[in-house]
Design goal:
Layout lengths: L3 H16 L9 E6 L1 H4 L10 H18 L2 E5 L8 E4 H6 L4 E2 L10 H9 L3 E4 L6 E5 L12 E4 L5 E2 L2 E8 L17
Parallel strand pairs: 1-2, 1-6
Antiparallel strand pairs: 2-3, 3-5, 4-5, 6-9, 7-9, 8-9
Helix pairs in contact: 1-3, 3-5
Length: 185
Amino acid sequence: MTNLHDLQQDLAQALNEFEQQVKFAPKQLFVIGCSTSEVIGAKIGTSGAMDVAEVIYEEFAKFAQKHDLYLVFQGCEHINRALTMEAAAAIQYNLEPVAVVPVRTAGGSMSAFAFTQLKNPVVVEAVSAHMGIDIGQTLIGMHLKLVAVPIRTSVKMLGEAVLTMATTRPKLIGGTRAQYELPNK
C-alpha cells in the first residue's frame, strides 16, 4: 500500500529543490506527466489511482500558485498524450482546444483528476512548456521547449516511479564569434 503522506512529502521536497535551481517567470507552462500506476508499483497504464492523483495534484497546485505558473497535465497514449490545462493558458499561448475529456482509462488518473479540479479546463494537442516533471517515465520531452536541461534533486523516485525533472533554455546558435550575453551598457 502506498503511503500518501510520504508521497506528498517526497514531492514537496523535490519541488523545493527544483525551485532552488530554476528561475520562474509569471504564467510559464509547467508540464506534468504522471503514471499513478507506476507510483504504486504497477506497470504504466494498468492501475490508475485517483487517490494518488489527488495528493500529487494538491502539491502541484500549491507550487503553481506560489510561482504563478500554469499547470499542464499530459494524458496517456490513448488520447495521444494530449494535455489538460486552464483555458486561460490555452488562450495566452494561442493553443487550439480539442474535443476529448480525459478519464482514468483514457487520459490517465492524473489528467482526469486535474480536469475535474481546474476552473475552466480544456485539452490541447501539444505545448512547448518551459519546464516539467515526469513521474513514471511518461515521456514529457515532446512537450518541452527544444533545449531541455535536466534538474537533479535528492528525490529520485516518487513511490515506485522514476522521477525526472527539467527546465529549458534558449538555443545557443552561431560559431566561435557568437556572443550569448548582451554587452554591458
